[in-house]
Amino acid sequence: MKIVAYGIRNDEKPALEEWKAEHSDVEVVDTAELLTPETAKLAEGADGAVVYQQLDYTRETLEALAKLGVTNLSLRNVGTDNIDFAAAKELNFKISNVPVYSPNAIAEHAAIQVSSILSQQKVMEHKVEKHDLRWEPTIRREVRDQVVGVIGTGHIGQVFMQIMEGFGAKVLAYDLFRNPELEAKGYYVDSIEELVSQVDVLSLHVPHFPGKNDHMIDADMIAKMKDNAVLVNVSRGMLVDTDAVINALDSGKLFGFVMDTYEGEVGVFNKDWSKDGLEDKRLANLIARENVYVTPHTAFYTTHAVKEMVQKSLDNNLAFIEGKEAPTPVKWPEV
Ligand code: COI
Question: Three-state SS for 62?
Answer without folding.
Answer: helix
